[in-house]
Design brief:
Length: 121
């Protein structure tokens, strides 16, 4: 593994986890169990579990099957995932708008420290 790949690994793991949480949210919004989604999408229940935990990076074929089970377009799955991230960023911006510049600066410094601890820099 190259240094660049090693540096990108934590971000990829976190992205896989966020995507897994998104899939879980889509499944629950449709009132489906993991087993029901697996059956509808012609994937194994273990595949659904691993995907939702973020320990499985699905192929395009698996994503298409997943979307068939969720009864949604593949583009809609990614659009709603992206929208969720933008919504979180907007909410954070709204929260920061209500505090003093001094508190904002302290929060930015805190985020910088946390990112360094996680190795995001």
């Amino acid at each position: 593994m190259s240094d660049q790949q090693a540096a990108e690994q934590p971000a990829r793991v976190e992205s896989d986890r966020r995507f897994g949480r998104h899939v879980k949210s889509c499944r629950r919004a449709r009132g489906l169990t993991q087993e029901a989604l697996a059956e509808r999408s012609q994937l194994s229940p273990d595949t659904i579990r691993r995907l939702e935990r973020g320990t499985f990076s699905p192929s395009l074929d698996a994503l298409r099957k997943l979307c068939m089970g969720l009864q949604m377009q593949l583009s809609a799955l990614f659009d709603s995932f992206d929208l969720g991230e933008r919504e979180a960023a907007r909410e954070l911006g709204d929260a920061l708008a209500g505090v003093t510049p001094e508190v904002q600066e302290a929060l930015f410094q805190l985020v910088a420290v946390l990112r360094r601890q996680r190795g995001d820099d």
